[in-house]
Amino acid sequence: MPFRDIIGHEHVLSLVSRAAIGGTLPQSLILAGPSGVGKHMAAMALAQLVNCAAP
Hints:
It is a single chain. The chain contains two helices and no strands. The protein has one domain (3-51). 47% of the residues lie in helices and 0% in strands.
C-alpha cells in the first residue's frame, strides 16, 4: 500500500516518505495514537517503501 492510499496525516507521511527516499530516515520511529488512526497502514507502507528495490 503506497502512502498516497492512506487518508489523513499527509504532512507527516510526506516527511517520512521523503526521509526514506532521501536516505535520512532515522533508525527507529514510534507510531503512537489511538486505535484506528492508521498506524499499522503507515508502518506497512513505510516497510514496503524501504524494502522495495524500485519504488
